[in-house]
Write a structure and sequence with these properties.
The strands form two sheets. The protein has a two-stranded antiparallel ribbon. Helix content is 57%, strand content 7%. It is elongated. α1 runs antiparallel to α2 and α1 runs antiparallel to α4. It contains four helices and four strands. With 145 residues, the chain is mainly alpha-helical. It has one domain.
């Protein structure tokens, strides 16, 4: 009789190849989303500056002593943090990793290492930043031909 406790599929660290590929897709999308934020940031700043001046010329609209541009940029920073938190939570759920779930924003940097470690345990390797997981190639012994 085998014990179910020793089955690695019942481990909290177990993630299937499909889950690892899904985590990689989420992680690969992140730089494009960050680039979108980088492009939107000056557009929002200029747009809110124009809107502020249009609503209350000549000095602009102020709320609680701060300009509309300041509030807009604070909102963009909050949205950026929310995006990083949400993507970190998605990856943490896919990988069943409590460390990533506990601190999703800071743990995003460790995702490639966690995915590579889990893929190695499943006999797979990462084919690069934009590629999926593939079966490991066996190392060829040059001396033993």
């Amino acid at each position: 009789m085998t014990q179910a406790v020793n089955d690695e599929r019942l481990s909290l660290d177990y993630a299937s190849v499909e889950d690892l590929n899904a985590a990689l897709r989420v992680f690969r999308r992140l730089p494009l989303e960050l680039l979108g934020f980088l492009i939107l940031l000056p557009i929002v700043g200029v747009g809110l500056s124009w809107l502020s001046s249009a609503l209350a010329p000549p000095y602009g609209l102020y709320i609680f002593g701060e300009g509309l541009v300041t509030w807009g940029l604070l909102l963009m920073c909050a949205l950026l943090f929310g995006l990083l938190w949400w993507r970190g939570r998605q990856v943490g759920r896919l990988l069943n990793d409590p460390a990533i779930l506990a601190s999703p924003v800071m743990s995003l940097l460790s995702v490639p290492g966690v995915v590579a470690e889990r893929a190695q345990a499943l006999g797979m390797e990462w084919s690069g930043f934009y590629g999926p997981l593939r079966p490991c190639r066996e190392s060829v012994n040059v001396e033993g031909r």
